[in-house]
Amino acid sequence: MQMLIVATVLLALENDNNYKCCQSENCSKKYMTLLSMIFSALGIAFSGYCLVISALGLVQGPYCRTLDGWEYVFEGTAGRFLTDSSIWTECLEPAHVVEWNIILFSILIALSGLQVLVCLIRVVTQLSRILCGTYSVIIQVTDPQWHLDLLHFTPTTQDPMTPVERV
């Protein structure tokens, strides 16, 4: 649920129709970038939480009925039951609960790890935008005289450091 909130906010921030928070467009973009970075950091925290809880659930094993009653039968094995499928028969009910538990938590670990990675990349990208800014590669010419100098350029044998007189 927490990741749905973060994803919704991040998608809303990507929308170009956001209101202007400052007088300048540059200020508004930086504010939206900062908000995006904050919510991406929250995404890292929430995904990291899911990753840790899923890993602990996988290592602990399922809650199942054994000959002694309902218990966490693999709790003291420190995850060794994952590689020894012969002891999975200790769980009598529900049927195939160990396999289901391993598949479920493995999928959760993989997806939350991917979410952490995506949010981390997003934070680094947004942080670089805030600190470095985004610069255009196109150089704009603001001096009209520069254009005229190029049109009237004539190669000379003079020293390149001496100015050329215009005709």
Describe what this molecule looks like in 3D.
- This protein is mainly alpha-helical.
- The chain has four helices and two strands; from the N terminus they run ααββαα.
- Helix 1 runs antiparallel to helix 2 (25-60) and helix 2 (25-60) packs antiparallel against helix 3.
Key terms:
167 residues; mainly alpha; 4 helices
Tell me the strand percentage band: under 5%
- Mean pLDDT score: 77
Return the string of H and E elements: HHEEHH
Q: Label the structural class.
A: mainly alpha
Give the helix/strand layout.
Layout: H1 2-14, H2 25-60, E1 63-66, E2 69-72, H3 97-132, H4 144-151
Antiparallel strand pairs: 1-2
Helix pairs in contact: 1-2, 2-3
In short:
This protein has 167 residues and is mainly alpha-helical. It has 4 helices and 2 strands.
